[in-house]
TrEMBL record:
Cross-referenced InterPro entries: DUF2316
Species whose genome carries this gene: Secundilactobacillus malefermentans
The name this protein goes by in its record: DUF2316 family protein
Top-rank taxon: Bacteria
Amino acid sequence: MTLNPKQLDMTRHELQQNFELSGLTKKQVATDLNISEIKLDHLFNLNQQSLDDPWILRNYLIEKVQEAGKEPVPFSAMGGDWHRHWFLNSEAIDARQMTPGDN
């Protein structure tokens, strides 16, 4: 699935808003997801090669915002159930298995 420029901008903004609502630092998020802060920056900028990794970050942020007792910002382009998208590895997303490396 390819997002158009407007969808990419909206998704970047939605990721950032949910990150801010979570109250976490980038270091905490990277540690929780067992990735480097470089990879996390790639995810926030949607420069990640894997299509699954941004969904893992999305789900993680939604969970953390809810745990903080707040309402997550809805995702416009990354909405719905990732299990219904044939191009995503839903098992990896469910298990929060990020791809190796920083890309």
